[in-house]
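Ticket #4471: complex job returned nothing on first submit. Input attached below:
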Amino acid sequence: MNKISIPIGPHHPLLKEPLSMNIEITGEKVLGGSLRLGYVHRGIEKMATQRTYVQDVHLIERICGICSHIHTTTFCNAVETLLGIEVPPRGLYIRALMCELERVHSHLLWLGILAKHVGLDTVFMHAWHDRELVLDIMEGISGGRVSHAANQIGGVRFDISDKQAEMINVNLVKLKQQVSGVLDVIENEPALQARTQGVAPVSAELIKDYCVVGPVARASGVDVDMRRDDPWSPYDKLDVKVITRPEGDAWARTLIRVLETRESLRLCKILVEDMPDGPVSVWASRKVPEGEVVTRSEAPRGEVVYYVRSDGSDKPARLKVRTPTLPVLSLLPVQLSAIHVADIPVVLAGIDLCVACADR
Amino acid sequence: MIRSLFILFLFPGLGFQILCGLAFEWMDRKLLARFQRRVGPPWYQPLADLIKLFSKEDLLPESASGLFEMLLPLLSMSAVLTAGLYIPIAGFTSFSFEGDLIVIQFLMSVPTLAYYLAGIASVGIYSIIGGGRSILQYLSYEVPLLITISGPAVMAGSWSVAEISQAQATMGPFVIFQPLGLILAIIGLIGKLKRDPLDIPSASSEVVGGSLTEFSGTKLGFWYLVMDIQAVVGIFLLVNLYFGWSDFSLPLLGIGIFIFLCLLMVVILSGTSAIFARLRIDQLAGLGWKILVPLSLLQLGFVILMGV
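Support reply: We reran it on our side without changes. The output follows.
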């Protein structure tokens, strides 16, 4: 049979963000693929060195449209460490609450995309409908559905009133029911399992070789989670349950993310209930003392690392961001071999791409 | 002469089938939307879509032949419309002869073959893959479907749809004796219509638009219309084969039951597309040859034994 090379992207119904792949196929079998990146490179790391730290918080929020909060949180953590200031506990709790809500919203969005790619539009619509509840919570407390502008250096920009806490609790209960329903559906849907089970399994060794992190690593049995391994307050007080599966296929990735959504909802509930009183923010100097620092936290897609070097001025001398998507992308050509053409969407959806994060 | 023209162009010919096709598309989309917690389109949406497509610019790749690509949907449309003429609508038979069930099956396969040709001839990578998939799918569902629908024919002792339909007035609806056959026939129909769990040739996340990727404007509009009419003809066929037609003393009761059964089939089709994920082509081939064919043979054997 003849070899055909099919282009996927930069514009393709499969992709929500621009990415270009050339996939070699014969008949329905995939032989391999190559990848081209850089369609949404905006030079954010360079731009950040031309702006002040205060402006950078808003710039960095725009690295990603889904995990915007975790980027600013990690950046603020880094700058606060350089400044040597302590964020008040209430501020940290609100930060962590937003992080967990963001994880729920990201995982539900992802579940919808996977369902859409395997032709299960009903789960797509229901997952995104449930996601609206998270967005409602986030809009209710921050005013923004996706870009929350919650962080500032020294704390967060808003407090949560009792009325808002009540609203969060009501929505969390609803969400918990919905997520249980979705879990029930995907655990009992034979066609979805037939499409995802055993598709492009990745071994734990390969995951470690490629430095892959987050849900994809945990689905292959690699037990990493920055919330537990390198926690910042208040994660050290929470007992974060890290979920792993040994299979490493698309099905394990699906289950991991849905179970993690449930775990995040549990954490949200604890965070709202245990939230201490007090201020949410402290004053921070605009000029940051000389030094360099690395901070990391667990984004919805895995470990995100920030490196900040300061030369003593009010602008960073260097900012380096390492997002979880890039190592997963490097593993992609490995996964795109010995599969069916129909598995390409499942593999692509399974790793939960965030091209904007990877390109910056 | 006037009666023939009426039959060809109004009822149950062109006009009626197009009307039913558009109504089917609307009901299908609306039901699917309600299953998915959406609002769904207003009743005139399928017609509006069609008008929009017909008024759009018609583009094709340079190496594709415009005339040939225009002929394919028209050929498919005439094939399914002709098939529709041999199927009694609520007991009204326009044309019928012994063996028309076979002819209907043949005519209903024409769109699939035309779909394949359209994909190959429009010279796009995705179209070629989609076309190849449609043939693989055809080989998987067509055999069990053919075996299954010979069940009612054997039971009624006739290969004419009108006579199979009439026979059930005395023998009782065949669905009572062949419930498995109805399920298999519905699966076959879903495969024929390339609807959701079996929309493998046109899966948007895999092959963009399948065979129709390069199509636009009038040709695409005709293709959508062909698929709607094909669905309607398929539904009428299954209702006639498995539920039949009974002439009740109340004049409107029979027509009401016929309409109800057709709507039931629409609900079943929409429901299956809402609750199942798309299969892979190798999984469909496995399902077709390892499960559907033995089951359909079992059903046919049961029918033959019953007649002995």
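The beta strands of chain A are 4-8, 20-26, 29-36, 151-152, 155-156, 291-299, 302-310, 316-322, 339-340. Closing as resolved unless it happens again.
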